[in-house]
Amino acid sequence: MHEPQITSVSDPGPAPISRAYRQQLWAALAIGVVLFLVGLKFDTGRVWESFLVNYFYFLVLALGGLFLVALEHVTSATWSVVFRRLAEAAASYLPWALVFGVALLLGVRRIYPWAQAGFHFDRANKAHYFSFPFYSERTMIYLLIWAFFGLFFIFRSLRQDREGGQINRRAATGFGKLPSLNGRMAAAFMIVFAVTFTLASVDWIMSLQPDWSSSMFGVYTFAGLFEAALALMIVMSVIMRRRGWLGEIVTDRHYVDLARMLHAFCIFMVYIGFEQYFLIWYSNFPEETSFFHRRIVGGWGWVFLFLLFAKWVFPFCVLLNQKVRRNENVILTMAWLVLIAEWFDVYWLVLPVHHASFVLPNWTDVGAFLFFFALFGLTVARLLRRHSTVPIGDPKLVNSVAGRYLA
Amino acid sequence: MPKAKQPTAVGIFRDPESLVHAGETARRRGFRDLDAITPYPVHGLAEALGLKVSWMPRVTKTCFFVGAGLGYSFEYWTMAIAWPLNIAGKPFNSVPAFMPVTFECGILLAGICTFLAVLAAGRLRPAPNFKPIDPRLTNDHFALLIPHGVEGGAAAHALLRQAHALEVFDVER
Fold first, then answer.
1. Contact A5 B18 (CB under 8 A)
2. If you count DSSP H runs as helices and E runs as strands, how many of each does chain B have, helices first?
3. How many structural domains are present in chain A?
4. Do the Cβ atoms of A384 and A15 come closer than 8 Å?
5. Is the confidence metric ipTM above 0.95 for this complex?
6. Is there a contact between A3 and B57 if contact means CB atoms under 8 Å apart?
7. What is the pTM of this model?
8. Rounded to whole angstroms, how far apart are CA atoms B34 and B10?
9. Cα dihedral value A52, A56, A57, A60, nearest 10
10. Which chain A residues are Cβ-neighbours of B18 within 8 angstroms?
11. Which residues of chain B have pLDDT under 50?
12. pLDDT digits (tens, 9 = 90+) for A119-133
């Protein structure tokens, strides 16, 4: 492995995503719309559940991208600069999430028990919180905030592509110096994100069972978000590198770093998941155990077990070995596994509310998945087709490529 | 058993890349048993110097399982055999309830044993008369150490100079 000192990087340019590929995505989008409309006619309740599952899943991927971007800015990290454009591409889906958040509001009466006539909460103040107008306002506020931060970081990053390091030159170095604007905005985002994502998880997922509550639920969905976001970065970068769209920028070393992070956060995931289960199991209050009772009996327990294995046991045991962790195919497989598991996690959170026994994903899920997948794919492709696949104007990029993470 | 001392060329570098680069060159030219002293872990250095994968993770792994096993056994013995208590109707052998302690015992033993194993493997002990090769190596400089036997000294020095070492000198090591 001979590596001369790297002092400059060549721009890999935009990703040449073919027209045929985009046409397939448009076709998937159209099929999704048709299946959704057919579903509205024949199976209204189920179609909105599928909508919620897939909407939330792709929102989580996009937010995960935004979170990784903000994490890089707030810590002035160097190692992840080579992946930042991919994370930004995922985050560029957030304005669409805003649009389809409005669509989700149309289905509120179909899926949330509290929105149906004659529902009584166990506590009176919950009824005020879960009134439809207030619920809609909150939904819009979260999505507006996320879209704002997403676009803010993306536009500044794209401007940096054109103007070089000038835009963010007041980098955070040493004590007493003010961090860059990106760093300050990212710090603000972290605080806002913690609150809004927790509340959004409560509103969209937890309120499916209005009498149940867990103070750990926001952390649980966040753990899934972060694990899935890292898996998405691995999948995107491996695929793009194999096609040569990342030039000489991303090397094996960068995958090892991502695989390490994935390994670390699959432990975080099981820690949070187990902790939530454990505390509810131990205290054994009927109003708390209802959540897991629904999600274990009637065949749902198999999904629960699958999540345990796919989100923790397999990635943990496989990525534990240093040599195995360096194998591109292995980490790609683990990343796909985690991404699939995250989908089933959302499925497992949403579906048992209205289905006492296990139901397989059916055509409404396929339709909603195709629709959001195509939308997500087209948005990501749009950014990557028009702009360089790496943040070429970032002064830290050279060090990131060369592995000078502490420079 | 400590190895016999042998003359070793030392090159002090300003940046980790030159160090890695010099290490690769030295290995291509046939020098073996290379070593490096760096203030922090350097990516790709172990590969460049041809260092074997450390056996330390195995110590950690083994001790984790021993610790976890002991922790679980002790809980099982106290809670299910020696003094069974009915706590809220839970089974005596309550696997989820035992998990945190099992986990912590595993971590505890793994941590302590790894610490001791590092001390032992590195022969780290109080050494009041210890003189570092260069105090800057604990801050922002990097050293490559090339054991060169009797006749390889000139070649090793030339190699280090070519790789832009700030200083090159010999130590007995």
1. yes
2. 5, 4
3. 1
4. yes
5. no
6. no
7. 0.88
8. 10
9. 180
10. 5
11. 1
12. 888 788 888 889 899
**List of chain A residues whose C-beta atoms are within 8 Å of the C-beta of residue B46:** none
Give the C-alpha separation, A276 to A308, whole Å: 13
Ramachandran area for residue B134 (φ above 0: left; ψ -120 to 50: alpha; else beta): beta
Q: What is the 3-state secondary structure (H, E, C) of A163-206?
A: HHHHHHCCCCCCCCCCCCHHHHHHHHHHHHHHHHHHHHHHHHCH
DSSP 8-state secondary structure symbol assigned to residue A56: H
Instruction: Name residue A260's amino acid.
Output: R
Q: In the prediction, which pLDDT does A168 show?
A: 54
B108/B72 same-domain check: yes
Task: Specify if B70 maps to a domain.
Answer: yes
d(CA A298, CA A363): 21
Distance to chain A for B43, nearest Cα, Å: 7
Is B141 within the bounds of a domain?
A: yes
Q: Residue A346: is its pLDDT beyond 60?
A: yes
Q: What is the span of the domain harbouring residue A51?
A: 19-165+179-249+360-397
Same structural domain, B88 and B61: yes
Return the SS3 of A246: coil
Q: Which chain A residue has the Cα nearest residue B48?
A: A1
**Cβ contacts of A8 on chain B, cutoff 8 Å:** none
pLDDT band at A2 (very low <50, low <70, confident <90, very high): very low
Domain that holds residue B14: 7-53+131-172
Q: Sign of dihedral through CA atoms A173, A179, A181, A186?
A: positive
A284 and B88 within 8 Å at the Cβ level: the answer is: yes
| B99·A281 Cβ contact <8 A | no
What is the gyration radius of the CA atoms in chain B, in angstroms?
A: 24
CB–CB contact B99 A274 (8 Å): yes
For A397, the token pair is 């990029």
Name, in order, each residue with C-beta under 8 angstroms of A320's C-beta and a sequence gap of 6 or more.
A263
Q: Which of A5, A254, A285 is the best substitution to test chain B (most B C-beta atoms within 10 A)?
A: A5
Q: Look at residue A57 in the predicted model and tell me its pLDDT.
A: 97
**Is the pLDDT at A5 greater than 70, yes or no?**
no
| Confidence (pLDDT) at A101 | 93
Q: Which residue is it, tokens 């041809």?
A: B50
